[in-house]
Amino acid sequence: MKIEGCLLSIAVVFALFIGLIIFLLSGEKYSLKLEGYNSPINPDSLVVVGENLIHNGDFEDHDSDMWRFAFQEKEGKILDRVGRNNSRGIMLVLKQDNGRDSFNQSIDLDDPPEVVVVTAWVKTEDLQCEVGAHVVVESSSQAQEHEVRYGSVGVVKSKKVSGNTPWTQLRFAALIHPDTDEIRVFGSVGGGRSRGKVFFDDIQAFPASRRSGPATNNNIQNP
Ligand SMILES: [Ca+2]
After folding, report:
1. Which residues are close to ligand 1, an ion, with C-beta < 5 A?
2. 220 found inside a domain
3. Are residues 79 and 157 located together in one domain of the fold?
4. Which of 42, 69, 125, 198 is deepest in the core (most CB within 10 A)?
5. Tell me, what CATH number does 186's domain have?
6. What φ, ψ does residue 175 adopt, rounded to 5°?
7. What's the CA-to-centroid distance between 89 and ligand 1, angstroms?
8. Structural domain boundaries enclosing 26
9. How far apart are CA 59 and CA 62, in angstroms?
């Protein structure tokens, strides 16, 4: 009986070991497969193929609740006269040691575009933090093979802004994995010890293609 128990234990440990090896190998396969979906690509020479995907990106619609706050909700607000040209915009306030703050909008994609081009305006006031303020496009997939990676099939970030920076346009493009069924566009700030204020306004995201040829509408609006 003792020997049988011992053999059973060895068999269980062996099975777990094999399982671990398979998991590690498959993880490597997925990360290789997703290579290229985690860094921005040049937004120039892309062809815009559809309408702006973001709702209330200028924050002028008081009734819209498309934007969701994450992390420290109380520190982020949509307010009059904090946006560009004294319009309505979004303000995130970081106090020392508060860490980070962000807001986001989810967009369902039935037919994912090859690329999404994002433009957003950001301003910072005395923003002191390691990471700075930036815009992020996170793609997720419910496809079975991606669930081992929490559904994330790409995270692409804009350049970062900090200090005292007047209204600046961030513009970048994210390659979208064909299995993507949802993207989330984040305005985000902070990480580590952080303080200061960040303002966002006029956030847009356009489906685009890398194909060449005659464009029907290749002008990205620049509000
Ligand atoms: Ca505005």
Report:
1. 58-59, 83, 87-89, 201
2. no
3. yes
4. 198
5. 2.60.120.260
6. -70, 130
7. 5
8. 1-33
9. 7
Whether residues 144 and 55 share a domain: the answer is: yes
Same-domain status, 1 and 91: no
Expressed in angstroms and rounded, the spacing between residue 119 Cα and the centre of ligand 1 is 14
Ligand 1 centre from 172 Cα, in Å? 20
Residues 27 and 46 in one domain: no
Pairing of strands 163-175, 133-140: unpaired
Show pLDDT as tens, one digit a residue, over the chain (223 residues).
Answer: 577 887 888 888 888 887 777 666 665 555 556 778 989 999 998 999 999 999 999 999 988 889 998 765 556 789 999 999 999 999 998 887 767 889 999 999 999 999 999 999 999 999 998 889 999 999 998 876 665 555 788 999 999 999 999 999 999 999 999 989 999 999 999 878 889 999 999 999 999 999 865 545 555 545 5
DSSP 136: E
166 C-alpha to center of ligand 1: Å?
15
Q: Ligand 1 center to residue 91 CA distance, Å?
A: 11
Residue 208 Cα, ligand 1 centroid: separation in angstroms?
A: 24
- Shared domain for 4 and 77, answered yes or no, is no
Single pTM value for the model: 0.79
Nearest 10 degrees: Cα torsion 187, 190, 196, 202:
-10
Eight-class DSSP state of 85: G
